[in-house]
Please model this.
Amino acid sequence: MGTKNCPETPRQKMINMMYLVLTALLALNVASEVLESFRIVDASLTQTLNNIKRKNDQIYDAFYAADKENHEKVGEWKVKADQVKQKTSELTTKIKDLKEQLALACGGVALKDAEPGFKLGDTEPIVVNSKGDTILIKREDDLNTPSEIMIQQKKATDLKNSINEYRTFLSSLLEQGSPLSENIIKQLDTSDPRINLREGGEKKTWESLRFESKPLIAVITLLSKMQIDIQNAETNVISSLYSQIDASSFKFNKLGARILAKSTYVLVGDKFEAEIFLAAEDTTKQPEIFVGSTKLTLRDGKGIYTVPASQVGTFKWSGLIKYKNPEGNINSYPFEGEYQVGKPSATISPTKMNVLYLGIPNPIRVSVPGVASENLVVTLSNGRIEKSGDDYLAYPTKLDATSKSTSISVSARFGSETRPMGSMDFRVKEVPPPLATVGGKNGGNLKKEELLSENGIFADLKDFDFDLKFKVTQFDVTLSGAGGYVKTFSSKDNKFTSEQRDQFSKLGQGSIIYIDNIMAKGDDGQPARPLSPISFKIR
Model:
């Protein structure tokens, strides 16, 4: 039947309009799982930001200490580092204030203005402004307000210009074309993306790609990621500046006398021997070296001082080095030293390093000159120690970072008599945490084929001398792809699940893989420990 015979009534028109509005609202609705994923990622990024800030503060403290010790040498580089600190603070403050503006515009509430008795939940999304005030985020799925502020009010363009100025400033402090300079330029790139013909050839700007029609929590998370990029760039630049303190200067700035003794502790009947030399010596000019009034014989520019050790005690000695400077004048450099003469005693040395580690056997070598190993009695005050071949294995039972309660004592049996020969204090530390890796990488770029060829997550204990193994017991994989959607998939062992692998096969270039909640257990008998999160970008 034609429409002329069935005209729409006002009621029908109203129903149709309500349907259109409902359809639009459904299209704009963002799944709660996606919002939750953004909350998780943003919380993790905030923790990473705090870690980077602590690291940067340590480098600035090192600049301060070095400048206090030698301003003439360090001052130039400290001034540049202070400029980096100021510029970084200005840019990160702008981002913090922008987060605050977005949160409040979307109904956020500052905790200082909250109702009496209000308690913030552990999972509540928040932002912290530049003054340290906490704002509770309310409408996380708001798509319109962030777009209005960032795009229509051109806050995104203002932010882009600030990042460009910051990038140019950092590059000016580095050698043009150097790997570090190129990395900074790439890390803080704000150029518009290339036109993708497969997606209709629509031209997008840096601003629209990141902030247009994105939910509030996604915009907050992206701004947190920008803060990390900025502070990582800060780390790289100030580390480079700090390394330049000695790069363009000589390794010494004055001449000085040095004593190199074979040992400052000798046994009765043995000899004490030391080499005395002038640091930074010129091989074309030989100094004159005196101990007391005796002129020493030189060997390769070094005076050889030898004296018999005939009795127990501490003996001090001193002398003078005479050296002709470039002007022809004689400069004198006094020196003094001391050595000890004692009776035979025990030698206790860790065969791996100078600390003991909790939960694993620590190899220790013990010897007493003139005493057979079977006549030694070795004890450990914090735990137990066992004989193992020619050496010993120490098993401490509790942590002792200051070596106040952990010592190895040695006694020797002489017939029916046992005499103490010495002891040594040790620190007891936990085995350092391993690094989570995929295909031997701890983060960065990763090809999809490489990812699909891997079985799962591994825990690598790098630069540790003990043969100790760790195995990952659980981890979460958070994936982000086109459209800004994020989802988390969990594994209860170190293997990628079939669901995770299926998601990997769908990843496109530029997708981000974030792996956290990583737990690993070692064969040291200690409980499973958390590992630092890692992330990869598909290329």
